[in-house]
Amino acid sequence: MNIIKKRSWRPIGLLLLWGLGCSTALAQLTAIVVVEPTARKAAHSILRTSAESGLSKAVGQPVALTTSDDLADVMRATRSAGYDIFIAPAQVAASALQRGYELVGATHKSDKYLLVGLQPIAAVPAMKGRRLYLPQQDSVYTYMARGMLNEAGLSFQDLRAVQYEKFPQAGLTALTLGTADATVVREDDWAEWSAAHPGIARVLATSQPVPGGFSIVVKKDLPADARSKLAQWFSTSSSASGLPLVSVRPEAMEYRRVAELGLFTPTSLPGVNRITAREAQTLLAQGATLVDTRTEKEFKTKRIRGAVFAAYVEKSLKDVAFNAAQDDFQALDKLPGLDKAKPVIFACNGAECWKSYKAAKVAITRGFQSVYWLRGGLPEWDETGLPTEGG
């Protein structure tokens, strides 16, 4: 009787498995077109139904396409892998690329962004106490502003006001009207505006290249065949739906820079001597102590020869106005034989690593009298060809 029962259920089980297989094969993919507030015309030119149809036909399964200009919400979606495909500006793609997505390409050449201010403002540090005009907080313009201010040792907290509006080009108008002291614009927009309005403003800082237009990223865990078909459609057929063809493939470094913008350390630190790798080598030879503030795993894997380990456990914001009370740097006090009167150098993983910056600043407050900061950290030391150990 048991044998008969097993046989009678087997066809049904097979049918269920076949049905599940079909369901997986025909599962709906999700895609989103993310639009900067300044590029709404790009969204209006995209024919959503046509794009859905084209993508579905290309990949052989249904694709649901939505659009959004709510960048804060979209950035949350990159962190939760909320869509299979992001068609988005560089900062959205950069976030997704850190979370299980791969790059198909971009629709336009890379752009540079400029922090521009009224003529009386001589340099970025003079922005302290001034008014800055920016679009949405998660727009690429805001990313640029945060990064350029941080590099000069300023944060948004140092400004009198940060005005968030919809359109960055209006920031140039705000400069003309005197309702803002500085704004961020694309290099091409600045060239056109400054030619028509000479003598009003000047360039305070220029960004590295940032991928332009839309960047397309897809989930890495999609089948290889599906990813290949999607890439081909974006490169050859998307223009029929009003979406520009993918024509360039920016370097991965450009996206990493965008992801790190606003997270780069300043180029100087009051009360602390910033030094190069060669200068650090000379100081070490003269008896200075070099403190590696990275994690123990990083330290054991590879380190500057002669460095000592004291982890800076970082929980505070990566900002010049960080709250040291949120961090843990007890390891510094536990280093044997460390003399506060003698030179001490702090280093970590380069310009985007805040641990050594914070450690150097904390050391000053704890009474260290001769503090040095190797901003380039291990990467600069390594690139200079200086000796390392560990591993």
TrEMBL record:
InterPro entries in the record: Rhodanese-like_dom (IPR001763), Rhodanese-like_dom_sf (IPR036873)
Xref: Gene3D superfamilies: Periplasmic binding protein-like II, Rhodanese-like domain
Domain Rhodanese per the UniProt entry, residue ranges: 284-390
Leader sequence segment: 1-27
GO molecular function: thiosulfate-cyanide sulfurtransferase activity
UniProt-listed PROSITE patterns: PROKAR_LIPOPROTEIN, RHODANESE_3
CDD domains: RHOD
Swiss-Prot/TrEMBL keywords: Signal
Pfam families: Phosphonate-bd, Rhodanese
PANTHER family documented for this protein: THIOSULFATE SULFURTRANSFERASE RDL2, MITOCHONDRIAL-RELATED, THIOSULFATE SULFURTRANSFERASE_RHODANESE-LIKE DOMAIN-CONTAINING PROTEIN 3
Protein name: Rhodanese-related sulfurtransferase
Lineage, uppermost ranks: Bacteria, Pseudomonadati, Pseudomonadota, Betaproteobacteria, Burkholderiales
